[in-house]
Amino acid sequence: MSLPEPVPGLVIRYSYVWRREADEGEESGRKQRPCAVILTVQRADDEMIVYVAPITHSAPKQSWEAIPLSSATKHRLGLDDLPSWIVTTEFNAFRWPGADLAMLPEELAPGEVAYGALPSILVDRIVEQFRENTARGRVRAVKRTE
């Protein structure tokens, strides 16, 4: 498995645990999905903590809950043609690389865990919306063990 540097905007394949699943006691994600790295923190002990937001086909109820991905960006990353959003009201935090990274489908890039990077203007929008949601108490975290 090839491990890229986890930087904000990198889209990885990850076994994401939704907050509602964590609230029910689940510790493992039900499926592997694309997730966007939104923040990385390098600790003094050389441990890297990565924060990822899920990418979903489920439309948000409110515009402040998620940011849409353009079809051009989805195509460039090798994702499907269905509408998708990056959720900005929850995230998973885990020690990089962690046990829940997954390889991309063989037809995309054998042995890789990353689809590619989001455009920097989109990354800026995602970070800004996370900040706004955090300030309003709308963000929920799921801290993973790995």
Description of the structure:
With 146 residues, the chain is α+β, with helices and mostly antiparallel strands. The chain has one domain: SH3 type barrels. It is 19% helix and 32% strand. The chain contains 3 helices and 8 strands; from the N terminus they run βαβββαβββαβ. The chain is globular, with a radius of gyration of 14 Å. The mean pLDDT is 94.
Primary descriptors:
alpha+beta; 8 strands; 3 helices; 146 residues; SH3 type barrels
Mean pLDDT: 94
Got a strand count?
A: 8
Number of helices: 3
Query: How many strands, what sense, and barrel or not for the largest sheet?
Result: 8 strands, mixed
Separation of the first and last Cα atoms: 17 Å
Order of helices and strands: EHEEEHEEEHE
Outline of the structure:
The protein has helices spanning 19-23, 71-77, 120-135; strands at residues 10-15, 32-42, 48-56, 66-68, 85-87, 90-95, 114-117, 140-143. It is an alpha+beta fold and 146 residues long. Strands 1, 2, 3, 4, 5, 6, 7 and 8 form an eight-stranded mixed beta sheet that branches.
Write the SSE topology.
Layout: E1 10-15, H1 19-23, E2 32-42, E3 48-56, E4 66-68, H2 71-77, E5 85-87, E6 90-95, E7 114-117, H3 120-135, E8 140-143
Parallel strand pairs: 6-8
Antiparallel strand pairs: 1-2, 1-7, 2-3, 3-5, 3-6, 4-5
